Amino acid sequence: MSEKTTSDKMLGVLGGMGPLASAQFMLRLTLLTPAARDQDHIPAVLWSDPRVPDRTKGKLSGGADPLPWLLRGVRGLRQAGCGAIAIPCNTAHGWYEEMAAEGVPILHIVDAAAAELHKVAPRGTIGVMGTAATLAMRLYQDRLEQQGWTCITPTDAEMAGLVSPAIASVKANRVAEAYAPLATVVTSLAERGATAVVLGCTEIPLGIQAGPYATLGVPLVDTIDALALAAIAWARS
Amino acid sequence: MSEKTTSDKMLGVLGGMGPLASAQFMLRLTLLTPAARDQDHIPAVLWSDPRVPDRTKGKLSGGADPLPWLLRGVRGLRQAGCGAIAIPCNTAHGWYEEMAAEGVPILHIVDAAAAELHKVAPRGTIGVMGTAATLAMRLYQDRLEQQGWTCITPTDAEMAGLVSPAIASVKANRVAEAYAPLATVVTSLAERGATAVVLGCTEIPLGIQAGPYATLGVPLVDTIDALALAAIAWARS
């Protein structure tokens, strides 16, 4: 049953967190892959289980533990024969070590974002947006500051009044509503000195791209695209 | 590890044929689902293996047999615990019986399209576009004519010069190029009396939607959306 194809590596995608972000990841994985026909694209299995308990509540406020659900997905992808796993949910990377211990290499979304950040703001002060849990865990700040960047984040009031409600809107399919609050925070970070802003929650690029984001005047790092580019590099290596 | 969620049914999606169509299927499945948070969305596993040999060549011109690849995907989805399978590739339905024999119910894309067609053109003459193999197998014509519609299809010259090249463009990520040839054929079918046109290849809605399709003046049945709606109905039943 063999036929000449470009890649024999199968990518695993642990998604569903949220499902729109993982669908967009699959779309961008396809569109960013150089291909002349179906058989040039990257084989992938997407495990999209939106039943995973809320990651932010799990980390910050005693909500149900998402780890058993995350491990079920990792094991399902391993059983399907996947050689590496991409997780288009930044907050889920708070359980990175436990998932990686299952034995399948996981492409870290912060490393993928850092690679893109190097292209638009190779040093200096950058803004990081994300869920309250991603920021509280310092998923981005610790890794990026080790590499020489200075990180600033939204204020608590901006998180509670703008970023967190916008993320919830995207998860409820009210994507267009998310633009204005997210754009306000991008602008605020730029005014405070950010020379680029990392959209460190995969709902944020969906919301920003529902409006005229190109006019915000500061380079943005889309963590969906960054992870898709890292996955393509893995598949083609 | 339980939490109250809307659906405990896991949908299997046999995709990759092409990968852009199956990513779009996941996007539309998400956007068409009434949901207020991640946990209201439908659990799904997408098996996106674009290495499946070309279905049209397999049926019409002695190309490699796609069936072993299709069965591998069906078995992978069964092993993942999926309770039904949606296949966002019309031509692959030429192997429907062999795949259904694996024991997991498969939502038939022609039945899904017929349900949508009833809403826009409940009787009369309708146009059917698809791959050369889908039309040659009469996947749509036989099922729709049994239900009282009269089907017309593109001419051989339109297939060779317009429809088949447009489908190939989408598979190669050259989506915008597909609009003009596909719009020409939609218009031609309408001029020949079609009161609606079924876009019976999942690359065709992607190509049509890259241009001003709403001005074509004839209702279109998008088989990606039709199948997503059938999948949502299954998950919520």
From TrEMBL, chains A, B:
EC code: 5.1.1.-
Entry keyword Isomerase: yes
Any Pfam family hit: Asp_Glu_race
Keywords: Isomerase
Top-level EC class as recorded in UniProt: isomerase
Alphabetized InterPro entries for the sequence: Asp/Glu/hydantoin_racemase, Asp/Glu_race, Asp_race
Keyword field contains Disulfide bond: no
Organism: Limobrevibacterium gyesilva
Protein name (Swiss-Prot/TrEMBL): Amino acid racemase
SUPFAM superfamilies membership: Aspartate/glutamate racemase
GO molecular function: amino-acid racemase activity
Top-rank taxon, per record: Bacteria
